[in-house]
Amino acid sequence: MTGTVKEKAEASVYTTAELARAAGVTRRTVMHYAELDLLPPDQVTASGRGLYHPYSLRLLRDLMDMRALGMTLEEARDMVTLRRATHDPDGTYRRDWTREDIPIDDGRLQALHARLRAVNDAYARQAENLARFDRWLSKRFTGGQSQHQE
């Protein structure tokens, strides 16, 4: 099974095209995020080719999710910056990070925290609404019996 996503996740680096393919986005999306400094390459070859460590796949997926949740590019950039400052390139949490490792001022961090709380609160409200609709639809169409009962 040469070239599967699982094998690539264990690879030491991704090219831009490989990262895009693994995340299910276009190569141009990865290049655009690199140009905006949202997801710069972890390494650049002598010929100028961008290479990404495996953790970049998670960061790219997180960027896509943050954008889908309505976060701004600046908020998404701060999230990636925060993650990269507190994690090793393989995604392992760095217990030795200090505040000086994070190049984001306190005001922006507080604004980001407030935004994340607002998004999380909205998500919790929607999860409750979806559960309520599911219960209603289950009662309406299955006579109160769950479709997943054994």
Fold and architecture overview:
The protein is built from six helices and three strands. It is mainly α and 150 residues long. The chain has a domain at 8-104: Orthogonal Bundle (Multidrug-efflux Transporter Regulator, Chain: A, Domain 2). It has a three-stranded antiparallel β-sheet with strand order 1-3-2. Strand 2 and strand 3 form a beta hairpin. Helix 2 packs across helix 3, helix 2 (16-23) packs across helix 4 (55-68) and helix 4 runs antiparallel to helix 5.
Short description:
The chain is mainly alpha-helical. It has 6 helices and 3 strands.
Count of helices? 6
Secondary structure category: mainly alpha
Largest sheet, in brief, is:
3 strands, antiparallel
Oligomer: single chain
CATH fold-type name of the domain at 8-104: Multidrug-efflux Transporter Regulator, Chain: A, Domain 2
Radius of gyration: 20 Å
Molecular shape = globular
Helix content percent band: 55-70%
**pLDDT below 50 for ≥5 consecutive residues: which ranges?**
4-9
Question: What string, H for helix and E for strand, traces the elements in order?
Answer: HEHHEEHHH
Q: What's the architecture of the domain at 8-104, going by CATH?
A: Orthogonal Bundle
CATH top level class name of the domain at 8-104: Mainly Alpha
Distance between the termini: 36 Å
